[in-house]
């Protein structure tokens, strides 16, 4: 049996070799003893010689015979296993069998130096152990299962090699021949842990989900399945790229400097500053809304990024301008919610603190940049202050009183608000509430804006004063007295004007004396000094301060139409007048005369010079034939020839002082008078030359115009003062005998029987006069028609009806050729024409002063004769002359407008009273004839009046609080006792809301939406004794609409474009607003809101067309904001054609109109096409006319009639060419050529020879 003793290295191993022993082991360096025993049954031979033993062919170092069955052998050096042990004795060797094999101990690794190295390999290591072989047997080494490179055997206990690539921890094994060290991880080699040197990117949004590249070392040369964490959170996914690079899809997170750890097979990277990743802090990119009320409470949505998760949202804090929101809530990683705190000002930074990290302001980058934050906004604007109204909205120019600015967004702090009156700070500003502040008004003048400044934000004001809520008006200047009140007409006198509200800025003050400016020397609020200009007569002194003028001149003085001629019409003057010492004209006798002149006028007045004065008198600017002084109060003038009425008579004394007749004392030349017409008849086609003789046709040709009936003569030729000729117009319809009149210098000759003309040569009747020219409205009275050529057969007379048509006489009786009687039908009206016609003859009619009229209506009584001031009372009117049921009678009560009445009979009407006050007359109008005021019964209004309302103008959208004033609104106990209604007379019906009794003299309410001006107001107050009504007439007006912009600003000249009109006070849907463009109404206007209208443009032309909104009867100021695009041409096809014309040419362009009604006209050069046919807005077809100018290019133009009488012409023209031979060739795509060069005078049968051809270019 073979026994193996395991000894330490370098100890002798003795092996007993026995016959039939098992396989044995020994140390590789030899020295082990091997015993050999004979096989059982083998005879033991006597020892003859020493035996020899070999192990694996190598002799043992020492052999000791022990017995016949056993020897000891010190094994030779060796490695490996399964070594055959052979014993030779006396030349006889033992045979091999499975039990005679020896195994050297396998290699064993004790240590490796160094014990770590780069994961990429290449580290030179020394391996210490045993049984590596006494000689070099080409051992191999693995580290972590991967072979070392360049293994060098140094000894049985030491090897060297270059470490392979690897990761983590690997066991070290040595392989020598077929033996290897055990897999027991007794000795390990540690590949260097991963090292992070760079992160790309090293920051990013908190949402995660994007890839970060990690650069460094020792990530392995194969996929090491790295485990990567950011701030302790596992990456969503990790990927190996190389030994120097791995990637991580980042998890969600918040905060800066999160450590990035890469773990390779349990080896984590060490923390380093280069391995820190920072989640971007919160950033705000948008706010919805971007502004809100100063009182706070706005629900603000904050949009941005990196707001963390819901857990982070529990530690959320949002602030505006460093003031925390009253409430905030996390919505998502990109959305927060906040209820704004109270505050004021603009540009307040909104900050969000998420997990103790404060948001960064939005980067200020241009909106067009490529930055992801381009155009972002992180600041919140508190709404700028606004002023709805100023109470009171006017006051003295001296200032020193408080006014209240009522509006919104004045904030909550009295220290951040300032009020300015125009550009001047109020002497004191008092903050009252978020909606009210008070201003101690500084001195000032004119119409100005009240400006409220809250922490640098000011209310918006318009560029020019208008009826805005922020308007404050300093009271207009008042002139109380002028001292001295008279002076030299040469001027230069120093005069003091006493009054009020003059201000103190001389630059804003101007003074007119009459119409002549005076120089202002000094001014304070209550008086000023001026230097009087030259003048004459009594002149009003008017003061203008900053576009506000003192009251107009009193009725006792009048101003001339020019600075050179004016005079007083009264001997007395008001205290705001200045009397120039000089001549005055008070009377002209006579005040009419013949056109030939020569009429002696007596001109009366005062200060008309002396006997030695040089007197010049002019009538209508023309010197009198003779002027002479009679007395200081009288001058004579012999009138010059002239024509026309209302001529001013002017006296000039010594070439310096002048005076003119007052307006009611002017001189009129006699009107033209026709005494004969020759011939008295002519053809119905007209063209007859007729001589008109008479008077006052003018001594010179003043261009008289003659008429035959209503038709103007084809030509009127002046001959002299007594004769004018007329070329008659054609007769169209109506009577063939027509009156002839002459119009000269605004005066028309009267119609007369001596001035008539008959169209045609037949017998025509003529009415020359009437007897009984007036009858009751019920008819039945007989009137007589006188004239000539009244034929008996089919005789019929009739009277014109008021409003149109005629009514036959009840009975027509023919008396003779010159006399007919008519029993008048019922009717109404005055100056009615009477007609006569018989069978086969034309109609005859009265003209000129020969007319018929019915009696005017008479009102004898009313029932009831009294009623409330609010009106609405049904009143029955009794009298006569009320006409027929279809004559539409009207009733007028006091100063109210004429209103409809209900006809009952010729003697009875009923009507509803309008609102009114006092005792007033009641009139009836029938057929245009009113009843007489002096005979009218009186109606008594019972009740009080509303004296005024503040503000006087209201926004059309309603909502303004108004205060109504009266002498005594009585006592009211609550809002339910008061009702306020706005409207217009009988149309009262729009009720205010929140009507409230404030005091015995004031009531407030919130105005309804509406439109119109000078509206009546009705107030009903319930008292213990019953209801009491109050009326205010014309005290309320809604604001005039205003247009601020138009979109688009230009369009087709043919119209049809949809245009949005923006502005304010466009009323309500049922107020039917309309829009005008260039003075023409849009074809359709749609109401969108109080600030927006949409209109379909009419046809038009030109730029800067005014856009006007019409709401009710109020019209906005013109907004010069719309341009009609003229037609444009771009191409013609074909571009050439024969000079003889008749070529069909298609012209392309734009703005040719939306239908054939635009009537386009095309031109080749200056020759209009024979026909132009509209095809579309972009195309017309021209049939060319005969051309001219061969070899010359021509413009092609198109004119479009966008409205009757208005043409739009193309602004860019297309060249056409007639085979030009030199010069610019133009654009061939837009040219028209005439290519026929045949002589246009050549007969059709002539032969044509072509003698030469040239390139026209």
From TrEMBL:
It comes from the Eukaryota. Residues 554-574 have a biased composition (Low complexity). Residues 545-591 are annotated as: Disordered. Residues 1-22 form the signal peptide. Keywords: Signal. SMART domains: IPT. Residues 106-192, 193-280, 281-376, 384-475, 476-581, 582-670, 671-760, 764-855, 856-944, 945-1031, 1040-1125, 1126-1209 form the IPT/TIG domain. InterPro entries: Fibrocystin (IPR052387), Ig-like_fold (IPR013783), Ig_E-set (IPR014756), IPT_dom (IPR002909). This is IPT/TIG domain-containing protein. It comes from Guillardia theta (strain CCMP2712) (Cryptophyte).
